[in-house]
Automatic annotation (TrEMBL):
NADPH binds at K102. InterPro entries: ACT-like_dom_sf, ACT_dom, Asp/hSer_DH_NAD-bd, HDH, HDH_cat, HDH_CS, NAD(P)-bd_dom_sf. It comes from Tychonema bourrellyi FEM_GT703. GO terms for biological process: methionine biosynthetic process; threonine biosynthetic process. The lineage of its organism: Bacteria, Bacillati, Cyanobacteriota, Cyanophyceae, Oscillatoriophycideae. This is Homoserine dehydrogenase. PROSITE patterns: ACT (PS51671), HOMOSER_DHGENASE (PS01042). Residues 356-432 form the ACT domain. Pathway: Amino-acid biosynthesis; L-threonine biosynthesis; L-threonine from L-aspartate: step 3/5; Amino-acid biosynthesis; L-methionine biosynthesis via de novo pathway; L-homoserine from L-aspartate: step 3/3. One of its GO terms (molecular function) is homoserine dehydrogenase activity. NADP(+) binds at L8, G9, L10, G11, T12, V13, G14, A15. The active site is at K202 (proton donor). It catalyses: L-homoserine + NADP(+) = L-aspartate 4-semialdehyde + NADPH + H(+). Its cofactor is a metal cation.
Amino acid sequence: MAFKIGLLGLGTVGAGTAEILLSPDGRHPLLQELEIYRVGVRDISRTRSLQLPENVLTTDLEAIATDPQVDIVVELIGGLEPARSLILQAIASGKHVVTANKAVISRYGQEIFEAANEKGVYVMSEAAVGGGIPVIQTLKQSLGANRIQTVIGIVNGTTNYILTRMQTEGADFAEVLADAQQLGYAEADPTADVDGLDAADKIAILASLAFGGRINLKDVYCEGIRQVSAADIDYADKLGFVIKLLAIAQDIKSKPDTEMLSIRVHPTFVPKTHPLASVNGVYNAILVEGEPIGQLMLYGRGAGAGPTASAVVSDMMNIAAILKTETVPIPHPLLSCTHQHYCKIAPMQELVTRFYARFLTLDHPGVIGKLGTCFGEHKVSLESVVQTGIHGDLAEIVVVTHDVREGNFQQAIDEIRAMESIDSIASILRVL
Ligand SMILES: NC(=O)C1=CN([C@@H]2O[C@H](COP(=O)(O)OP(=O)(O)OC[C@H]3O[C@@H](n4cnc5c(N)ncnc54)[C@H](OP(=O)(O)O)[C@@H]3O)[C@@H](O)[C@H]2O)C=CC1
Ligand SMILES: N[C@@H](CC=O)C(=O)O
Ligand code: NA
């Protein structure tokens, strides 16, 4: 029995997926039962390196999504529309769906999964987070016995690639971004990568799986890497840290019967001894802490044709395997989405974390004392304060705090910004 695949998109991930399907030798035998039936693209005249079966290419994606012959629709075009509508059309036509589209799943998950459950079809999205890393299945199935406390991830390959090369080669941001685009890591609009939006989509999906509720993406705090300078990377190094764009979801409830999560994406000082500090280049890693499992880290390539396609094809095989046995009722309790409520997300002011801040000040006596007094008045305890150098008429002062309430820290910063002896606040970063 062959399962007919309708592939929407033949770009980086689509081509990687087709390549696996066209070379089944040495892989799981089930792969031989997945047949590329139609492939939808935008520009049919474009030269493609793949040798596809004849007459499969079309620009009519809607026809694929609704074709009665198609068993599984694989959405790999990216973006919000027409991707969302095509997924919904496929579901309405009774097709199972595989997608790598975190933007659509994080925003329209409720609509999509409700439609899928009603229609009795699967929507699988392993490639949407961590590329080839099997993190979605791990959270959905393998860790189901745990109470999850924390999920911390490096989940954007493009920014990790950029930060790694800035750190190791002192490379220029724009030049490295162009390389990441060339390598097929970046989104069609790389703003989504650089400004942390892609990582926010991904941590919303992971948090939903880890904490068993829907996440409203608007509640996810998001800061990208544009402001990270060579000077900060250098100070981080001297202080024993590396800078990583972290996506963090934590259960911060104060009592067992309450629910409160902190979900955020921001560049972070990570101690060099932390397991996430050595995750470099396009590699992603997701560190999960749960009870009783303790710490678990998944590591692998988070972007690129082959690794991402590995996840896409494994989703197709999972669906094919279920369809073959036909013993499992749909919705399958471990493969389908069964979330009903929205999780409560704490405002950032309530976060308790350490901070690194770099100030440019007039080189006057007593400036350090004024900074210390102001922080003290706002209950911000300092771990270290160093005057690191002089730039023309300005002194540079670097501060690292102990754990503080973010709201208190920001109030102190507002007062400091208004001080006459402060020229500017060059950077503020959170410390893990
Ligand atoms: N690249 C990566 O490493 C990863 C990507 N993803 C996700 O996978 C998805 C695909 O990404 P990627 O392969 O990089 O994207 P690409 O831009 O490389 O490819 C997009 C493909 O979709 C087709 N397409 C786009 N819009 C339309 C449209 N409106 N109508 C018809 N065809 C269309 C394009 O056609 P044509 O070829 O004619 O231009 C192209 O074949 C995205 O959701 C992305 O977020 C997830 C993990 C990793
Ligand atoms: N643009 C994304 C691709 C994978 O999701 C990234 O860089 O991680
Ligand atoms: Na994955």
